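Trying the structure run again after the queue cleared.
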Amino acid sequence: MKKAVFGNGGHSREVISYFNFDVQVFVDDEYAKGDVLPISLFDPKEYEIMIAISNSKVRESIVKKLPLNTRFFSFIHPSSILSGDINIDEGCFIGPNCILTTNIKIGKHALLNRGNQIGHDCSIGDFFSAMPGSVVSGTNTIGDRVYLGANSSTKEKIKITDDCTFGLNSGIVKDITEPGTYVGTPSKKI
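Done. Tokens:
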């Protein structure tokens, strides 16, 4: 089965640059031109696909628009270190120099960018996005559609609800129980 990527922006081009195989790029129909095909031509019998969009909610909306029989592939960069007992669901991207220790579950369509770390005993939901340098300490439970800005970090034993966005350099030091946008250290909702 051939490989495909949805997206033609900066993140998508970065993802594709790490592959040692060819991919077909698809985008929304109105943005297709040249070798970049409209998503209306995507055939799930011919391609398996990765959604290479950094925004968690947009990534989810694209997945929901694709045919039910679509297959999604995951990619783990060879420079990343995955220790033991790690479950990574479909459609995930694990970028260069990531470190995942042990007893970790990562949901569907997660994005771990360059140099992310995830500690032991973590459960991470679907459509998680961790930007470069983000660190998730041990024994964290993170919901769906959570976005960690570059160089953000969590204290150990933290729970984060669904639909949270953390800005650049956020320090999450207590449970986050309300969806929203958070900034600073300690992270505060804005």
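The longest strand covers residues 81-88. Worth checking whether this holds up in the mutant runs.
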